[in-house]
């Protein structure tokens, strides 16, 4: 009788095409800074995998499924790379379409005025391992106007898979480096 559930699981998993994606090459500075941010254990559901594309969008498009806490980078041939993310807290969530306006390595953080008003303890800081933007940031614009939202790394990797940000899309630092290396300025980003 135990064999029937095993066969059922095997049949269900046969339709899944998860393939691990190797870590990107990183610089000595990246390795040094990333070592200073404790890498938390996380649900393997939020690991970086190549999957069958569930979005139907053109290759090069980034699609963030906020309810799933997943970001998809659409690849050719019906594939996508899936990354686990943290998304905006319900009160601060953002959805829409934007483009990657610019990219930065270990970016400085300049919290917007409304964030400082909510949390007076936050302040601008230079890039580095304790910076909330983490290893990389992709700055999102709507028709050339900065949305103030970013796809970026984090100094809180234990929160991947949660709705905790002020609207930005947070990724593990190694994942945002991988995405940063694959995505050009001008790429379309859909957050839904």
TrEMBL record:
Which residues span the membrane? none
Q: Which residues form the signal peptide?
A: 1-20
Species name for this entry? Methylobacterium pseudosasicola
The record's annotation in PROSITE patterns points to: LD_TPASE (PS52029), PROKAR_LIPOPROTEIN (PS51257)
A Pfam family cross-referenced in the UniProt record is: YkuD
Pathway annotation: Cell wall biogenesis; peptidoglycan biosynthesis
Gene Ontology process terms (BP): cell wall organization; peptidoglycan-protein cross-linking; regulation of cell shape
> CDD domains per the record?
YkuD_like
InterPro entries recorded: LD-transpeptidase, LD_TPept_cat_dom, Transpep_catalytic_dom
Give the UniProt family note: Belongs to the YkuD family.
Q: Which residues form the active site?
A: 152 (proton donor/acceptor), 168 (nucleophile)
**Keyword annotations:** Cell shape, Cell wall biogenesis/degradation, Glycosyltransferase, Hydrolase, Peptidoglycan synthesis, Signal, Transferase
One GO CC term, this protein: extracellular region
**Name of the protein in its database record:** L,D-transpeptidase catalytic domain
């Amino acid at each position: 009788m135990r064999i029937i559930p095993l066969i059922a699981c095997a049949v269900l998993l046969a339709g899944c095409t998860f393939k691990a994606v190797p870590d990107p090459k990183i610089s000595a500075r990246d390795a040094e800074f990333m070592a200073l941010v404790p890498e938390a254990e996380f649900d393997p559901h939020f690991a970086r995998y190549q999957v069958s594309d569930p979005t139907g969008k053109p290759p090069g498009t980034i699609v963030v499924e906020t309810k799933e806490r997943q970001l998809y980078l659409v690849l050719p041939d019906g594939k996508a790379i899936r990354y686990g993310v943290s998304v905006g807290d319900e009160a601060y969530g953002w959805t829409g379409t934007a483009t990657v306006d610019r990219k930065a390595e270990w970016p400085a953080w300049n919290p917007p005025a409304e964030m400082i008003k909510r949390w007076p303890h936050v302040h601008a800081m230079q890039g580095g391992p304790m910076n909330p933007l983490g290893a990389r940031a992709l700055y999102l614009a709507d028709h050339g106007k900065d949305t103030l939202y970013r796809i970026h790394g984090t100094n809180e990797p234990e929160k991947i898979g949660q709705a905790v940000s002020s609207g930005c899309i947070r990724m593990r630092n190694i994942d945002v480096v991988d995405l940063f290396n694959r995505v050009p300025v001008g790429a379309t980003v859909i957050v839904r």
